[in-house]
Amino acid sequence: METMRTEHSWITTPVTASLLRGAVDVEYTEQGVLPHRLPAWARAQCADPQLAMAESQPAGVRLAFRTRATALELDTLPTKRAYVGAPPRPDGLYELLVDGRPAGRATVTGGNTLTVDMTAGTSEWTPGPSGTLRFTGLPDRPKDVEIWLPHNETTELVALRTDAPVEPAVDRGRRVWLHHGSSISHGSEAAGPTSTWPAVAASLGGVELVNLGLGGGALLDPFTARTLRDTPADLISVKLGINVVNADLMRLRAFGPAVHGFLDTIREGHPTAPLLVVSPLLCPIHEDTPGPSGPDFSDITEGRLRFRAMGDPAERAAGKLTLTVIRDELAALVRRRAVDDPNLYHLDGRELYGEADYAELPLPDELHPDAATHRRIGERFAGLAFARGAFAEARATV
Fold this sequence. Notes:
Layout: E1 11-13, E2 20-21, E3 25-28, E4 33-36, H1 40-43, H2 49-56, E5 62-67, E6 72-83, E7 93-98, E8 101-107, E9 112-117, E10 122-126, E11 131-135, E12 143-148, E13 154-162, E14 166-168, E15 176-181, H3 183-186, H4 197-205, E16 208-213, H5 222-230, E17 235-239, H6 242-246, H7 252-269, E18 275-278, E19 293-296, E20 306-309, H8 323-337, E21 344-347, H9 355-360, H10 371-387, H11 390-397
Parallel strand pairs: 6-9, 15-16, 15-17, 17-18, 18-21
Antiparallel strand pairs: 1-13, 2-5, 3-4, 5-12, 5-14, 6-11, 6-13, 7-8, 7-12, 9-10, 19-20
């Protein structure tokens, strides 16, 4: 990224929904445009600040346009997170693709700051200035340009400037893959927005990604199901379970009917689309121990936050959920439903990340995979779903 301006005949193009892919809703603010991954009516139904933060972080959202510009600037107003007692977090990463190939990375300094005190359970918001990222030296020819926004940093888009006209990207006729999941699907500790496991899988599968992975928010909420129902898609996957356990949200009696209702709602809008239900990845702390998950602050000053399971394994007898219980329930539920729904599929999450993977690439905080593991999970999903399995079978029937 360069911060100094040189002489260009800049053309300013308003940032509108027509230039965005992967966003479900767009909010027009005093500064510019704020992409959302839940619609306004859904956001109004839940006052959870964690969900509000997660859905406004633009995982999978990108500016997409066609131009012969050789230079571009994007003014943004990020909202950065800081944690009391912990080292500063790195600035969110923007990634440039030209004709589908990586062509640059940049960050934006400044912006608003949300300071979180995890011990006290409080947060403080401090306003800040917008910043500018700049890419130069692009090929002087018509090309498809994508700017992937930081997957873990709320980002208002203020202004787009180029040295040649811009038009919305051409529809290449690629299938749209709509995915919902937890913070792991959101991106957790991925290296960048194109390196989250859904982005890796989408690239390998040749599809357009709409990522509704919501950190801490895969809780079988009815408004999320209705959002999935109403979002255009050719292929749909839902990765369910880990947040239900680590939030200690419900018992077994409620879980099965909630999943049925979630899938019923999706089917109202997508009655025949391939629908893949993915159970949790391996997570040793919660395999046989119920939630909730609790933070371990012992290494926080060194930038390491770990989690531990705070439930009692004996409580499984009273219906408390563990990942083992959830996997069994999801497998049986999909098997029963598939009798009447031939386009419904199941994937055991341990095929994406299992015991051998944990031995080689352990979860650094006991909950979230690191950057290398995101890539492995994305590659595995591409092989299991796109190359063969649910989504490959869908291609064969088109």
